[in-house]
Amino acid sequence: MDTDLSAHGGLEGRLAAMISPAIEAMGYEVVRVAVLGRERPTVQIMADRADGMLINVEDCERISHAVGAVMDVEDPIPGAWTLEVSSAGIDRPLTRAKDWERFAGHQARAEMLVPLDGRRRFAGVVLGCDGTAARMRLDDGSEVALPLGEIRRARLVLTDALIEASAQMARPATEGENPEVNGQDDTDMDGEGPQASGPSGRKVH
User: Fold this and answer.
1) Residue among 121, 155, 124, 120 nearest 138 (CA)
2) Confidence at residue 178, expressed as pLDDT on a 0 to 100 scale
């Protein structure tokens, strides 16, 4: 997972395992879980549709209600918390082996937890994944295999080709559907997809 582990250790992984069954049963997939902040942490869920299409605001709201219900029962975070659900967006993080396969041919940047051949940061074209390592063709023409378990973070680079490919993943608006929610378009200017703020957690004593 591409998460902030400095303050929350393995909490993100436990949360992903906890909420994934409910989300998958609804036809979605968890792309990333992050927990940010200390006093009143924000749980950020990034999700996809299982069919590969981009999620919209209504999808985010459904996921938010389902995740909030699971967390209220399981109570994984002491005290109060806030939930945010969003699409992976266009220049999305690459967190799973399937992401590296799906976006082969597109530009990406990756940062390693430990140096590989003396360097931590890599940029180039995604070549796919062999199940244990993500493969990239670097800007100098050489190729590298990045062990999946040692990748700190990786993200696609916003290019015209990626924007065009992402347009094919956008769900067509149904007849009469309003593409704006609260006066804002579904897609933010920075490439992030639609978002929904979920319930704030309340620990019952």
Assistant:
1) 124
2) 38
pLDDT digit string, tens, across residues 81-133? 999 999 888 899 999 999 999 999 999 999 999 999 999 999 999 999 998 99
CB proximity list for 20: less than 8 A, separation 6 or greater: 29, 30
Q: If we measure between CA atoms, which residue out of 32, 36, 29 comes closest to residue 4? A: 36
Tens digits of residue pLDDT in 53-90: 888 899 999 999 999 999 999 989 988 999 999 988 88
d(CA 5, CA 149): 14
Q: Which residue has the tokens 């703020």?
A: 197
> What is the rounded CA–CA span in Å between residue 116 and residue 77?
35
d(CA 123, CA 89): 20
DSSP annotation of 157: P
- pTM metric for this prediction: 0.71
Q: Count CB-CB contacts under 10 A for residue 162.
A: 20
How does 130-144 read in b/e, with b if 16+ C-beta sit within 10 Å?
eeebbbbeeeeeeeb
What's 105's DSSP letter? T
What confidence score (pLDDT) does residue 105 get? 96
Provide the H-helix boundaries in 2-56.
11-25
- In 3D space, the residue among 102, 103, 140, 104 whose CA is nearest the CA of residue 122 turns out to be 140
